[in-house]
Amino acid sequence: MHFNINHILINHGFKVQPLNDTIYLNLYEAIKNAILSQTLDSKIKLPPSRVLSKDLNISRSTVLKAYDLLVLEKYVTSVTGSGYFINSIKDIKHQKHLPAPVERTKYPKLSKKGLAFKKNVVYIKNNQDKGIAFRPGLPPLDIFPTQLWKNLSNDYWKNVKYSLLSYSNAIGLECLRNNISNYLKIYRGINCNSDQIVITTGSLHSLSLIGEALIDENDKIIIENPTYPLAYNLFKGLKAKIITSKIDSEGIIINTLKAKKPKIIYTTPSNQYPTGVKMSYNRRVELLQWASNNNTFIIEDDYDHEFSNWGNPVSSIFSLDGQDQTIYLGTFNKLLHPSIRIGYMIVPYYLLDTILSIYQHTSRFVSPSLQRTLSSFIEKDYLNKHLRKVIDVSCERKKVFLGAFLENFEKTITLDDENTGLHIIGRLHQDYDDVKLSAYLKKKNIIVHPYSKYFIKGTNENGIVMGYCSVNNKIIKETISKMKTEFNNFVLDS
Questions:
Q1: pLDDT value of position 17
Q2: 3-state SS class at 389
Q3: At 183, which helix (H) or strand (E)?
Q4: Distance set, CA 212 to CA 215, 359, 431 (Å)
Q5: Rounded-to-10 torsion of CA 456, 457, 462, 466
Q6: What confidence category does residue 120 fall into, taking pLDDT thresholds of 50, 70 and 90?
Q7: Using CA atoms, how far apart are residues 182 and 151, in angstroms rounded to an integer?
Q8: Which option is the CATH number for 385-493: 3.40.50.970, 3.40.50.300, 2.40.440.10, 3.90.1150.10?
Q9: Domain 6-91 is of which CATH architecture?
């Protein structure tokens, strides 16, 4: 038999409100505590899930999730067709109480690599809980064809063979690499063999594999300044000697490079990150010659090519390279959405086996189901259609953003609106602390990044880096209006 146990559960910690995704854990704990205290014993049958869900005014699925945990932990036995029965306290293996937690104050020392990651320049943190406006680097998320993607994914799982559920090759599925190779020919003028393409989770993953393959302690690496903070952190974590390079209106200033034979020069030539400078054709040729003279690999991070080079494309460094000294990085995370986690790199044959070996011993491979779905997305021409829509929507939203921002911040913040990528830099008219400003706005659910944190050393510039196209026009205008109010409050508090 069963009976109404509401009062028992409440007395043992169950709270009907607030309802959230973890309510089932609260219900599980309350029933478990009641069993351990023997308020509920083996003579009692738990109410059917439908009955208890109605009594507690919660969903049946919530009750079933709690019951499943109780069965898993041997507090309850499920009998098909009969219900859930409480086990005898003697049969419960978890009756021993865990010792009370003690606050720990001593831990093993962090590695030098760990300390480097902890201390070095980084601001790009997870802000998912704080909304997405105006987080840099996000495409128009609301127009992604989720149903189409779901259909393609379902097609894969309907037809998948059990043999494909085993371990996959680190290099990636052949079908996806072939489709990426064709895509690069059309949109980026790059000709490469598909067996040079390695599928990764994104540019940072690619950089990690390259760094592990090439960098020993104190090896020299040239990086643009300002730069992508996470790339700097990664190389610094490998104990590399970082040498910064200034940029001008044409990109890296080659004649200022003083380092002799650095292992790597890391650059974002199509849309310098974060300034938006596009490296000129002549400067690219000059860089290739300099790299050849110094026996240096060039890492060409083409992270948002589709956005930054749509109207005025420039030949990639990789396509100009006749000496196999360029490693080309691309990603679909900024074109489609960050959660897809699929990027790629084109690797010189000299490095290919080494990188694949490191890959196999670390993250192994990208999910084959995701790879297959993306491959179909490209092959069926859905990527091409989506790309054109993304470009149109991004251009429209940029105009709306610029107009609304100028209306609200004309006298306080100046925009560098020449950047053709997914973000815009706002220069502060007065010497406000951009780190404090960004933190203040984040508390108000407005995500911007402090421009000063993109500089490695030298003269830092204050400003805010903002994405403009991840949300629709209505939210853009509303958020900018809110941002003006909060900015004024920040100024008053400063």
A1: 63
A2: helix
A3: helix 174-188
A4: 6, 10, 40
A5: -10
A6: low
A7: 23
A8: 3.90.1150.10
A9: Orthogonal Bundle (1.10)
Q: Taking every pair of C-alpha atoms in the chain, what is the biggest distance, in angstroms?
A: 86
CA distances from 415 to 135, 315, 476 (A): 16, 28, 16
Domain boundaries, the chain: 6-91, 115-119+145-382, 385-493
Please tell me the chain's helix, strand, coil percentages from 3-state DSSP, rounded to the nearest 5. 45, 15, 40
Strands (E), 310-447: 326-331, 343-346, 413-416, 423-428
Q: Which residue has the tokens 């592990």?
A: 212
At 93 the pLDDT is 59
State CA 206 to chain mean position distance: 14
Shared fold status for 6-91 and 115-119+145-382: no
In angstroms, the CA 454 to CA 245 distance is 13
User: Before 145, cis peptide (omega within 30)?
Assistant: no
- Are 278 and 272 spatial neighbours (Cβ–Cβ below 8 Å)? yes
pLDDT tens for residues 412-440?
999 987 777 899 999 998 888 999 999 99
Residue with tokens 């409480």: 86
pLDDT for res 443? 92
Query: How sure is the predictor about 180, in pLDDT bands with cuts at 50, 70 and 90?
Result: very high
Measure the CA–CA gap between 331 and 345, rounded to whole angstroms: 8
Contacts (Cβ under 8 Å, ≥6 apart) of 239: 112, 113, 116, 215, 216, 217, 218
Query: pTM value?
Result: 0.82
Q: Which residue has the tokens 């020449």?
A: 418
Band (pLDDT 50/70/90 cuts) for residue 123 is very low
- Give the span between the Cα atoms of 203 and 415, in whole angstroms: 27
Does domain 115-119+145-382 sit in CATH 3.40.640.10?
yes
- Output the pLDDT for position 337: 92
Rounded to an integer, the average pLDDT of 108-122 is 70
Q: Which residues contact 482 (CB under 8 A, 6 or more apart)?
A: 444, 446
